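Journal club prep — side note

Before the paper discussion, L.F. wants everyone to see what a predicted structure for a comparable chain looks like in token form. Sequence:
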Amino acid sequence: MDALLEQGIQPMLTLYHWDLPAALDRLGGWLNPASADWFADYARTLFKALDDRVKLWVTLNEPWVVVDGGYLHGSLAPGQRNPFGAPVAAHHLLRAHASAVQAYRAEGRGQIGLVVNLEPKYPATETAEDLNATMRADAYWNRYYLDPVFLGGYPPELPEIFGAAWPIFPDADFDHIRQPLDFLGVNYYSRQVVRYDSEDWPLKAARVQQMDQTHTGLNWEVYPQGLSDILEWVASRYGPLPLYVTENGSAFYDPPKMDGEASDPLRLNYLREHLRAARNAMRNGIDLRGYFAWSLLDNFEWAYGYSQRFGLIHVNYGTQQRTLKASARFYREVIRGNGGALALDRAAGSEDRGAGRIA
């Protein structure tokens, strides 16, 4: 960390990303109301140790993933499929976030915020069924963890989505959750075109595959316009707070070994077009303070292991040799020229707006 500071690079430190220690999970994990206090104690320890060097702090990264994968669908730790527990876990995560913000206000000297993964939703048709399905998907993906923080309550679609599993939360909790933030981080990878599907649980809202578009190795549609749309939506709904794009990137096939050329044209194009989309959002008045590409290195991608490569730098997992991909060399030129490389092969402002509308 000190080496980064010496180079003028300001680190952003995230307190929590997805998995609790097993000892806390045995005590109930995020289902335990005391988890907010555990988290605040942990946060204070890190603040005291590192706040003299870290000036940008994040409480939670992607709480949606924690709850959807860990407590509703069971695809991630702790592997529960519990519709009654999922809303409780989400609520305690937000309480924990707020408790950490409070702790930082008492002891910290920098800035603190929250990071959420957002995916703009567009209706497949203008039918009432598709429009309502799109609103449910938007509530569950995009508003679930932002409305309580900025507006003081959950989206009204959530009781419909969870039905009898939706609890009643104390009003005082929302006063606590609504702690003022210094910034918001947005992780963006793709969009979703939505149609009504009575068999889809719990949203009754299914993704419509866009067959005429490029998709990544994870079958995520490449849709740069969605980044502009979601940043502008955040500012419109929650106010003109400082924003960061804290994750944005793509997994495409790279061979296990790469030579000095290390060509990755699909990833390079993804990076270029999403940087242009971020620039367009800034031109439209969005207070975007920074952009973080995911990721610097090929790495272990949670449930996907080493099967998916997001890195701008190739890693030979057998030898640990690092090789700059073409996307890394391009990104270096973008940084070196303060964005000038984005306009070399296309006139500024000519990006295709795409079709459809965000929920």
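L.F.'s comment for the group: The CA atoms of residues 36 and 96 lie 4 Å apart. Keep this in mind when we get to the figures.
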